[in-house]
Amino acid sequence: MPPREEFPTEGLEGAPSNDIGWHFGTPMPNARGNIVCKLCGKVVKGGITRVKEHIAHKTDNVTPCPNVTGVIRESMMNVLKESNTKKIDKKKEKR
Ligand SMILES: [Zn+2]
């Protein structure tokens, strides 16, 4: 069996929001905005976007995840780029 390196493309059932980041993080019940990385167990502060940056090794705000595979890391980086593009598009529409 090859190692499972598929990247989820849909939101996780039962997650707080329809965000693929919840495949990699579990919200801490008593600390709002703190999320535990499912891959390395590190607590990421600041919300699900920080978890995605942690997974993607986008290290502006967070330390990179030591346990993520290359496929997932690259896929998550693409997700972050796409969400940035969408935000820019929305701003254009309002103007
Ligand atoms: Zn991690």
UniProtKB/TrEMBL annotation:
Residue segments, region Disordered: 1-25
Superkingdom of origin organism: Eukaryota
Coiled-coil ranges from the UniProt annotation: none
One Pfam family here: zf-BED
Domain BED-type: 22-58
InterPro entries with a match to the protein in the record: Znf_BED
Keyword Metal-binding: yes
Protein keywords: Metal-binding, Zinc, Zinc-finger
Molecular function terms from GO: DNA binding; zinc ion binding
Name of the protein in question: BED-type domain-containing protein
Provenance organism: Gossypium raimondii (Peruvian cotton)
The organism's taxonomic lineage, starting at the top: Eukaryota, Viridiplantae, Streptophyta, Embryophyta, Tracheophyta
